[in-house]
Fold this protein.
Amino acid sequence: MASPSFDPKHAVVFDIARGATHDASKARLLLVPANALSELVRGSEDQARRLGQAIGKACGTRVAARLGGGDSVRRASIEAVVTELAGELSVTGVGLVSLERWGKALVVAVENTAVDDDVLLAGIVDGAMSAAVGKLVAGVTLVRQGSTARVLIASEATCKRVKELLTGGTAWGDILGRLSTGGGA
Amino acid sequence: MSAARVEKLEALLARVAQRAALPRPASGLLAAAAPAAPAAPAAHFAAAAAAVPAPAIAIPPMRPLAGSAPELTVEESEEYMDTDVEVSTEVVEVDVDEGDEAMHDELAAAAAQEQAGHEEADQQAPVSSRRPVALSQEEEHDEYAENPPRHTPPPESGRQIAASPSPAPPLASERRPSAPPMGEPQVGGWREPGLEAPRTPSVVPPPAHLQPPPRTQAPAVPSAASQVPAVTLTASPGQPIAGGPPGGPAQVMRPEIRPNAEVAKIEGEIAAAEESSFGDILDSSLSI
């Protein structure tokens, strides 16, 4: 079986004559400075989350389109999904994505990310994941270590408890430990 | 003193004693204290003179009689020292006939001969003397040849004093190493500083209490593992090392490890992940 690979051919089309930028599905794109987005969502988690989910949804939709729909994505191997998802987010300029499993918990690690806001980043990730599989998932940023951020993919309730624990000062490692042992966060 | 001389003196002494034993009118100087002199051997004679203090063992050498009482000479020798000597303080009356020319001449000859022997003995060097008393002409010549006299020029001559040739130092090979210092252990040997190292190293065995015990073969333990060892040592000539010692490569001992040896045994196994698709993994994470 050949390893899956991402084909970035014509992922972004710059129509200079018409002053337009669009993706492979002919959807219009707008190149926005990263810090402008950070300034936009600063102080409003809801706006950040909604903006992030919008960005991620576009990426996840393209992944699903490449892999043949939501059901196909669910049946696909994890390597194939990671490859397509990382390719789309890389072209968008979010960062380099990889998947980690800590017990049952699924963690998306984003290296060299251009997004400073944690809520915005978590919205981009869970939005892309939801659009790819066709199922609503939630995400919460666990930690930032240098230019690498880790986002937990879980249910909406779990992400809410994890966020409370992080605010209370619990280390992200302990939280993942509790989730792995089935004790809940 | 030769045996002939001893016999001669003994005969003379016997004659003197015989004459002394003859009855003579009492003299004012000599008192007849001894009735008769003992016969030979001379060690048993009662040798004494009126003027000789007791004990009269050492008597001066015999000299020619000059109208006085004849003097007796006793030579000390190991033979006499071994025998018991009776020393008597009794005065022996000795009558000497001055008119006996024959006996006088005989005594004179014997005394002269005895005197010559004593002079010869006096010339012998004492034990404590370092040098001989006198050197012969040949010895003097040799001594002069070996150590010629040094003539030091006068200071006003301006000439330097020639240094005497000193004997050449012995070669290192001729020198004998000195003994090691007292108290030093013999292990490792001793070499005097300045001498060359010995060509062939001398091996000094360690003391008996430091020697390893003799090797004994361990009893073989029959087991299945010992029949087919997992690791065996094999000797093989190694590759020559650049810059290594001459003489070819050293013998290298390498372990021969069987790759199929069952070294570790793993019990149990990790449960394989049942989720094979991305959807299952996502659902597992959502179920938390």
Q: What stands out?
A: The interface with chain A takes residues 276-282, 284-288 of chain B (CB under 8 Å). Residues 27 and 93 of chain B are 9 Å apart (CA to CA). The beta strands of chain B are 231-237, 251-257.
